[in-house]
Amino acid sequence: MAPPFSQALPATAPISVIHQRPAWRDTLVSLRIRNYRLFTFSNLLSMTGTWMQRIAQDWLVLELTGSVAAVGITVAMQFAPMLLFGLFGGVFVDRHSRRSILLATQLALFVLAGALAALTLSGGVQVWQVYVIAFLVGTVTVFDNPARQVFVNELVGPAKLHNAISINSSVFQLGGLIGPALSGALLVAVGAGWSFAINGASCLFVVAALLRLRVDELHPTTPAVRAPGQLREGLRYVVAKPAILWTMVMIAVMSLFTFSMPVLLAAYARDVFEVGAGGYGLFNTLLAVGAFTGAIASTRRLGIRLRTVIFTAGLFGALQAVAGFMPSQVFFCVVLVGVGFANLLFITGANSLVQVSSNMGVRGRVMSVYVLLLLGGQAVGGPLMGWMVETYGAHVGMAVSGLAPVVAAVVIGIVLARQGQLRLRISLRREPRFLSIVTRSPRDEVLVAGQKA
């Protein structure tokens, strides 16, 4: 007879509890680890290249077709493989060396970026070729993204995991700050092809960093032994833990409605404010400014709770809805910074909560579900928001994309309250007086020591 699921995996390794905010000198404490520092700096170059390719690819499709809906199809092609195969990618990551997987995926991304650069610079690129390469990039991401998520723990160990996740988000958004600006300038000056070429070169820096890591200083985890039912086991694990389950539900809503910003911003740049490729790059840069600030702020957190994740999702959506009705480009740009800030508070919180709530034996599978919802949902959301923009206009599309997570956050809050997992607490004994919602069973949503599987 098989053991109960709760006993099928060993207890999660103890996780350090932070009782006070770290000193400012420790805000980037994970970077003191040589392996993590080397990987992070190479990752910054890679993320800059990734953002450059993303912006150039979307604008290239818009130029080739004149259709915002076609940009949505491009987004769908890139994220569809995650929707179709993402769970199997997580099983693969749990069974194999994450470092070896990343070496293979970065080399594959180098080849694909080089092919797109060659097609574009030759002047013979067609939209179907962009679609195909986007789909192949998405297929590589099925393995690259969960491996990258789990590999962070091997670089820094569990004690510094939350800090490292926040730094990773900062790096991603710093790339989003530099990449769109560079890509926008290149689009105006020489076209999209050189953005693709630079992205290809950036992949090689990650390969070089991975080869230079000191393997004896890693915190390796034993790969899962191939066995039947591992995919089902990972899904049951997600459903069994409320902190993971409700975070995943919120991620799914955000992915479907809110994370299709390239589609929405392309419409605002072309149709609303008529600022062209340069303006499109500027809008993405402003989002990244806010997001980078939010990522740095997240390194100061003592911990992360489910209520914080749900609240920041609602705040993110509300700001995005407000952006849809800004009367001028200046006000629109100001709100975009706030949208980026709330976005990163939500994303880093959701990522941290899911990772530290997961046993290392199933973390690859859990993170594959996370990435499937995060990226795969955009395979549906991209065309959906593209259709909405072309049918009802950019303002309506932006408003709907923001209001959906607000509604979801309210509904999830009500459900949790009715289940008795949340209660209202009012404190009048300490200054400043405050009103907060706390959990009745905090072990499922607060970072605690000796957390069980």
TrEMBL record:
SUPFAM superfamilies reported in the protein's UniProt record: MFS general substrate transporter
Q: Does the keyword Transport apply?
A: yes
First-listed, main subcellular location of the protein, grouped into a coarse class = membrane
* InterPro entries linked to this entry: MFS_dom (IPR020846), MFS_trans_sf (IPR036259), TM_effector (IPR010290)
**Key words of the record:** Cell membrane, Membrane, Transmembrane, Transmembrane helix, Transport
| Pfam families noted in UniProt | MFS_3
Which residue spans traverse the membrane? 68-93, 100-119, 125-143, 164-188, 194-213, 243-269, 275-297, 304-323, 329-354, 366-389, 395-417
Query: CDD domains of this UniProt entry?
Result: MFS_MefA_like
The membrane-topology field of this record reads: Multi-pass membrane protein
Tell me the ranges covered by the Major facilitator superfamily (MFS) profile domain, including all copies. Answer: 35-420
Q: Where in the cell is it found?
A: Cell membrane
The record's section on PANTHER family has:
INTEGRAL MEMBRANE EFFLUX PROTEIN-RELATED (PTHR23513), STAPHYLOFERRIN A TRANSPORTER (PTHR23513:SF11)
Name listed for the protein in its UniProt record: MFS family permease
